[in-house]
Amino acid sequence: MPSNLPSEWKAKAIGETMSVEIQKTQSLLLGRIELAALLGLSAASLDRAVQAGRVPPPIRISARRVHWRRSEIAAWLSALPAEAPSPGRSGPL
Prior knowledge:
Helix content: 40-55%
Distance between the termini: 50 Å
Shape: globular
Number of strands: 3
Number of helices: 4
Largest sheet: 3 strands, antiparallel
Strand content: 5-15%
Strand order of the largest sheet: 1-3-2
Order of helices and strands: HEHHEEH
C-alpha cells in the first residue's frame, strides 16, 4: 500500500481487506443452524447426532460457537451409503 495515502484511506483499505478475508473464511465453514438445515435436522437432532458420532465433530470457534468445514461435510456426505434407510428411520442420521 502506498505510504503517501491518508491514514483514513489506509485504515479503510485494511478494513476492507480483512472483511474480504473474513467472508472467505466464513464461506468455508458451516454453522450449526446451516448444517442442521442442510441435513434436514433440527439443531437439537444435529447435536444428538454429533454426540452419537453419526456426524463429523465440529471445530470449536469459541466457548459457545462451533462450525464445520464445508469440505469435510461434503466428503462425509459423499461417503455415506446410497442405500434406503431402515424402517423407522428417515436417513443415515
